[in-house]
């Protein structure tokens, strides 16, 4: 399986970089992982709703240009659908069985994802109603994808 994670914004915190590197390394046993990190647009303080939409649109265009046509797209969105770890594992397993071997996960920047990106996605995945910073979200996603592969392969993993 080819997994691409398209993310808006860089990882600045060292402790997150270490965690991301660790789970990327662990995942390399199960899939071909590619992380595409896109520059976020500068957002001034006290930004208007209209300016927010313009920035999200610009970031969204960059995201869309990094999605392959044949890819199954999972957008991370607070308002999306929540899955248990077992359900996410099942979803990834079913996609492989159905011949979808290219999966793209998308993590938005601090302002979130544009409508165009959400419309392109095949599934919107929520990790709860809480808002997580995009940097931390990347680590959480990698850990959950790793957990999925452990579940799919019937390998032990702490509950
Ligand atoms: C700081 S959040 C953006 C917050 C923005 N106000 C919004 O509503 O999307 C940055 C990105 O992290 C991801 N994210 C944050 N919390 C999430 C959650 N609970 N479930 C799924 N994705 C989340 C989303 O991709 C989001 O675009």
Automatic annotation (TrEMBL):
- Which Pfam families did the record assign? SPOUT_MTase (PF02590)
The protein's organism comes out as Alkalithermobacter thermoalcaliphilus JW-YL-7 = DSM 7308
Q: Which gene underlies this protein?
A: rlmH
Query: GO MF terms on file?
Result: rRNA (pseudouridine-N3-)-methyltransferase activity
- Places the protein is found: Cytoplasm
Give the primary localization class: cytoplasm
List, alphabetically, the GO terms of the cellular component aspect. Answer: cytoplasm
Subunit structure of this entry?
Homodimer.
The reaction(s) annotated as catalysed by this protein in its Swiss-Prot or TrEMBL entry are: pseudouridine(1915) in 23S rRNA + S-adenosyl-L-methionine = N(3)-methylpseudouridine(1915) in 23S rRNA + S-adenosyl-L-homocysteine + H(+)
EC number(s) on file: 2.1.1.177
The residues that the entry says bind S-adenosyl-L-methionine are 76, 108, 127-132
Q: Which UniProt keywords apply?
A: Cytoplasm, Methyltransferase, rRNA processing, S-adenosyl-L-methionine, Transferase
Q: Which CDD domains match?
A: RlmH-like (cd18081)
Q: What does this protein do?
A: Specifically methylates the pseudouridine at position 1915 (m3Psi1915) in 23S rRNA.
Q: What is this protein called?
A: Ribosomal RNA large subunit methyltransferase H
């Amino acid at each position: 399986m080819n997994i691409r994670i398209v993310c808006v914004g860089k990882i600045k915190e060292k402790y997150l970089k270490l965690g991301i590197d660790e789970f990327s390394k662990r995942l390399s046993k199960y899939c071909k992982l590619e992380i595409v990190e896109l520059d976020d647009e500068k957002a001034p303080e006290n930004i208007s709703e209209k300016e927010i939409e313009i920035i999200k649109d610009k970031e969204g265009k960059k995201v869309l240009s990094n999605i392959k046509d044949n890819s199954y797209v999972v957008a991370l969105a607070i308002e999306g659908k929540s899955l248990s770890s077992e359900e996410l594992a099942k979803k990834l397993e079913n996609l492989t069985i159905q011949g979808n071997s290219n999966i793209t996960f998308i993590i938005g920047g601090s302002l979130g994802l544009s409508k165009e990106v959400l419309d392109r996605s095949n599934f919107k995945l929520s990790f709860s109603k809480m808002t997580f910073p995009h940097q931390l979200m990347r680590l959480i996603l990698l850990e959950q994808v790793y957990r999925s592969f452990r579940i799919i392969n019937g390998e032990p993993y702490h509950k």
